[in-house]
UniProtKB/TrEMBL annotation:
This is Extracellular solute-binding protein. CDD domains: PBP2_AlgQ_like_1. It comes from Bacillus swezeyi. InterPro entries: Bact_solute-bd_prot1 (IPR050490), SBP (IPR006059). Keywords: Cell membrane, Lipoprotein, Membrane, Palmitate, Signal. PROSITE patterns: PROKAR_LIPOPROTEIN (PS51257). The keyword Transmembrane does not apply. The keyword Cytoplasm does not apply.
Length: 507
């Protein structure tokens, strides 16, 4: 029976947490009832990711309302149309007390610049949980150094190398420790019949069409192994420079081309649907994926479903040593944020009431309610052992799953999880624990540029296209440098100038 494991990880908000928010009854319901007391009510807008939102009679919602002493009313919006709805609501002026912001979208940035949201920077220090927010993550989630939303924490370190250990054993290799070792593993998986079927039908690593520019794609992760920056670096003059203008980036790009030329990665990577990313590993065609550690668990489960003998086939390591040391690619440390509109929260006194509520949402009891539900209904604790009742009862899960949208996980996780004893889980935990020391952070993460808002998509496509073309051999290094010059002429020069001005102001 799985034993209780509690607390500890600063970034982990759990897979359930990625879902939805607290609350249950809609604004419309409360208006129809006509009995909403504004001083005791919190109105929220949040995206709906799970199949069902917590109903107004949800025991978990009622427990949360009892704990916070607030009536919680949520307007749920399908995630697929959330940004559109966000813009409509902002224009309407009929705003909730707190609103989930899924990313720094142009609509959110525009609203911030027009003064629609409270700047929270001066207030958070006064709250027992919010005041302990991680400074790096808070800065990452800020807009040019100013905080307009409370981040929802996620693991800061997720990048991993996922490897089929049965293949490693068959070709006589150990887990790679250096980039050269990594190359040798991919080469052996292509040439040494790792599945033992006597056919030349395998290759090293599967990569999808997700190219990425600093958003955690396999290419982003691997370029840090060579010492390249994470989207932007800082030169000897203390100024920001794009990663693709550095020598380390070009060294990584040559390595990627080598993998492609030697057929150590899938030839169709430029068009491969990321939804099918796991398939070649599960079906025995490829042996490596570079992505988040959570994908390793998905693949391991799929392999065991196909054949129970595949137990403990998949393992992970965090990174490999490169020519300039050992580095890894971090996330921004958060997944969206919670902002407070001035239209509905008009005074500083009202603001502090909302912040008190949000602070409470990080308390131990609140985190347990939104992540685990109600003891005796959703789970049991028996002599230190936590057992969930939800594995075969999704209805129970949906009673609280959505509430986790407002569980920010600050300063750390404070809810129950079932203890995991597998080697894979332990190694993933080790990667998270050790990775921050060697993470390559993006120094421009918090900077919001007007130039990028207007021209960012066009500028990104210039580099993404050139990157793909170089890897597959359609252009050479001169062709790539021509693309870099086109990037500068198309607005990149203005962008770098603006970012450096913002960087110096927010240092």
């Amino acid at each position: 029976m799985p034993k209780l494991k509690y607390g500890g990880k600063k970034w982990l908000v759990s897979s359930a947490v990625f879902f939805l928010l607290m609350g249950c009854s809609s604004n419309e319901t409360s208006k129809q009832n006509g009995n909403e007391k504004e001083k005791d009510a919190i109105r929220i807008m949040a995206p709906l990711l799970s199949p069902e939102s917590p109903g107004e009679n949800s025991p978990s919602l009622k427990a949360l309302e009892k704990y916070t002493k607030k009536q919680i009313n949520v307007t749920w919006v399908p995630n697929s149309s959330y940004n559109d709805k966000f813009n409509i609501v902002m224009a309407s002026g009929d705003l909730p007390h707190a609103i989930v912001v899924t990313d720094k979208s142009p609509g959110f940035i525009k609203s911030v610049k027009s003064g629609a949201f409270w700047e929270l920077t001066p207030y958070l220090k006064d709250y027992p949980n919010l005041g302990k927010a991680d400074e790096k993550v808070m800065k990452n989630s800020s807009i040019n150094g100013k905080v307009y939303g409370i981040y929802r924490a996620r693991d800061l370190i997720r990048a991993s190398i996922i490897i089929r250990t049965d293949w490693l054993k068959h070709v006589g290799l150990d887990m790679p420790k250096t980039i050269d070792d990594f190359y040798e593993v991919l080469k052996a998986f292509k040439e040494k019949d790792p599945d033992g079927n006597g056919k030349d039908d395998t290759y090293g690593m599967v990569v999808p069409k997700w190219m990425g520019l600093g958003n955690g794609s396999p290419w982003d992760i691997m370029q840090t192994w060579f010492g390249a920056p994470n989207r932007y670096g800082v030169d000897e003059n203390g100024e920001l420079v794009p990663d693709f203008t550095t020598d380390e980036y070009m060294e990584a790009l040559r390595f990627f081309k080598k993998l492609y030329d030697e057929r150590l990665i899938n030839k169709d990577f430029a068009v491969m649907d990321s939804a099918k990313w796991n398939d070649p590993v599960v079906k025995g065609k490829a042996g490596v994926i570079v992505d988040t550690g959570s994908r390793a668990s998905q693949i391991q489960s799929a392999l065991e479903e196909a054949d129970p003998a595949n137990k403990d086939v998949i393992d992970v390591i965090g990174t490999v040593e490169g020519p300039k040391g050992t580095y890894t690619f971090p996330t921004s440390g958060y997944a969206g944020m919670i902002a407070i509109p001035k239209q509905s929260v008009k005074t500083e006194k009202e603001l502090k009431k909302v912040l008190s509520f949000l602070d409470q949402m990080n308390d131990e009891e609140a985190q347990i309610i939104v992540n685990n539900g109600v003891e005796g209904r959703n789970y049991k604790l028996d002599d230190g052992t936590f057992t969930s009742y939800e594995k075969n009862n999704k209805k129970l899960l949906y009673e609280h799953e959505g509430l986790a949208q407002f569980s920010m996980g600050i300063p750390e996780r404070r809810y129950y999880i079932e203890e995991q004893t597998s080697k894979l889980f332990q190694h993933r935990e080790q990667i998270i624990k050790e990775g921050e020391k060697i993470a390559v952070f993006n120094p421009a993460e918090s900077l919001v540029s007007d130039v990028y808002t207007q021209k960012g998509a066009q500028l990104d496509n210039i580099i993404l296209d050139a990157k793909t073309q170089f890897i597959i051999g359609d252009i050479d290094e001169k062709g790539f440098q021509d693309a870099v010059q086109l990037w500068y002429k198309s607005g990149g020069e203005e962008l770098i100038k603006e970012l450096n001005q913002l960087y110096q102001q927010t240092k």
